[in-house]
Design brief:
With 385 residues, the protein is an alpha+beta fold. It is built from 15 helices and 8 strands. α12 packs across α14. The protein is globular. The relative contact order is 0.09. The structure holds a DNA duplex (18 and 18 nucleotides).
Amino acid sequence: MSNNDGCAISRSNEAKALGVKMGAPIHKMKDLIERHRIVCLSSNYALYGDMSKRVMNVLRMFTPQIEVYSIDEAFLNLEGIAGPLKDYCLRIRETVIQRTGIPVGVGIANTKTLAKAANKMSKKNGGVFELTDPAKIEGALANYDVGEVWGVGPALTAHYARRGITTALQLRDADAKDIERKHSVVAARTVLELRGVPSIPIEEVTPDKKNICVSRGFSRPVFTLHELCESVSVYASRAAEKAREQGLNARSMSVFVETNRFKDVKQYANSYSIELPVPTSDTMELVRFAVRIVAMLFVDGIEYKKAGVLLNDLSSEGVQTNLFDDEDRMRLMRLNRAMDLVNKDWGDGCLSFASCGIGRSWITKFSKRTPRYTSRWNELAVART
DNA sequence: TCTGGGGTCCTAGGACCC
DNA sequence: TCTGGGGTCCTAGGACCC
């Protein structure tokens, strides 16, 4: 299950057979789960990260030229390996199982895209599948849905389908220039890769992160400033921790909040970014800015004097007021007021999601598809005050 | 009541510059 | 009818990946 045990994100073959869909909300499957006594387990990302490292270290014994692509995938450059590659890869597979107990699939090909396809095919072919013989490639790609190809997502699949391209073979034989004109260089690269022309290099050194984001949907709606600040502070300190782990400093910070998009009520979403005066990964520093941004989210553009609200006792709400200067205090007074107004107007559709992100660029961008109602928000606040 | 959480890159178009 | 011709930077949004 995903975070907060909300969704099914990994399923056994038995669960799949019972119709448990990828990403399906657990709470909508209560009956199914009970009827078939399906076992639901919380996820443990620290454990997976640790196991991943162990597997990757075993792979490193077989070639120094390795790109750790994700928590459970790696590309190995086998150029210059003597003897049949398939035998070599069978040995890799055996060694990984011996040392970690984890069964892996190995796909062998001239390009990353073909290797990914071969890897998928390996699952039904003894764990190792080679895709280097032209005739074999042709046959395999003819039976491979274009949507399964690495780099071809739902949008491209639909576009290709309209032009009669439904298999990987048809995409391979399409006009690459035409694909580039109609779509992008990325799509064109996929075509070349399917032809066996390496167009996506193996990246042995992992590039530094450009953004770090910590975001959570709340397990229940959040109504008070105290709860919001508390959550965002936790996200900010987690983000700071991640930055330090990676030896990075943030130059900007962004916070966004959203109402519950699954509810059929008026939606609100907003975000605010700042440049940090000095690049940092210091927890207290970043938490302080995060809380200030929360204030900015709500009160941007409202005159304090017009608001004319009384200072709420922030410490009785549990907010650490020693983090604020006078200006922050003023913002927060207005924020308290704004939260009140929003709670009245939006009712139980109130904040359900928040995040804190930091980045290397001057402005951190986490664009969301959710519409923003900043002006509406301000109108509301001004009108009510 | 409960509905995942991270990331990256590319492109089009507008603003702005000379 | 004529109406310059290049550029760069930034941002939003789309698309993809795990």
